[in-house]
Amino acid sequence: MTQPAVNLTPAARRSDEILDPGSLMRIKALELRAKIVVQGFMHGLHRSPYHGFSVEFSEYRQYSPGDDPRYLDWKLYARSDRHYIKRFEDETNLRCHLAVDSSRSMSYGSLGYTKADYAATLAGTLAYFLSLQHDAVGLVRFDERLDDILPPHYRPGQLRRLMLALERPSAGRGTDVAEPLRQFAEYVSRRGIVVILSDCLAELDGLETALGTLRSRGQDVILFQILDPAETSFDFEESLLFEDLETGRDLYVDPQQVRPGYLEKLEAHNQSVRATCDKLGIEYFPLTTNQPLDGALHDFLQARMRRGRRVSRRGV
Description:
CATH topology: Rossmann fold
Shape: globular
CATH superfamily: von Willebrand factor, type A domain
Mean pLDDT: 81
CATH class: Alpha Beta
Strand order of the largest sheet: 5-4-3-6-7-10
Low-confidence stretches: 1-14, 47-58, 88-92, 311-316
Distance between the termini: 10 Å
Order of helices and strands: HHHHHEHEHEHEEHHEHEHEEHEH
Number of helices: 14
């Protein structure tokens, strides 16, 4: 039996006033920001027609033909009108690595906060949610190389250590997405999920090979490409002196003149990232830093559900 799709509509999931990124980023504590996003997301699920879906997300899965009916939970059926069975420990435990870009390009922000702030908050949100699900979460940060490696665990203090690592400022400069991911593919051994959070504003030579190595080693990969709205629109009006954050080079630019060529190259670059992900079966989600973070949590959960259905079909 194919598991039905769950339509977790944004309108049912959030209060825009609370989960607006600008409001969230004014909260200093990263863990509190993550908690607010997760609680808002879960509150939306309780209020939606699918409130039975995520309340027991870590403990149950939908009944499939061949499952032992002795493990059906009739109380849950009475609340949700769907058949669920208790999942065994080896089905519930997930290992997730969060790979966060900490290069200098991530320090750009036109909204009062940076791409790095947004990426750290999203990573913290995913870590907080997965910890609630009793899943093992770890972290790596990267610029030209891997940094701040925290192996995935589910144990007391792990979430706090991860939050502290995310809050540490980075001394990174240039971005080389491919090489750190290649190094990471050599480092990671056990199967799980790798969530990459990066602006991907780097040369893409070798990216397909690095991501392909991760996939060949049994990793499910999700890529969130995070850009600032000013980067995607380049709607500056007056000629300005721009600083390359990674090289320190100053560039005097007339936006009116360079905008068409800039947007064309950015679109081609982003399409190349998307095409690489599509080719390798990697979930790709483009984000701008003015988008509410619970939407990204929703995307992550939908990707995880699709992964679960693929695993179920392979096991039939």
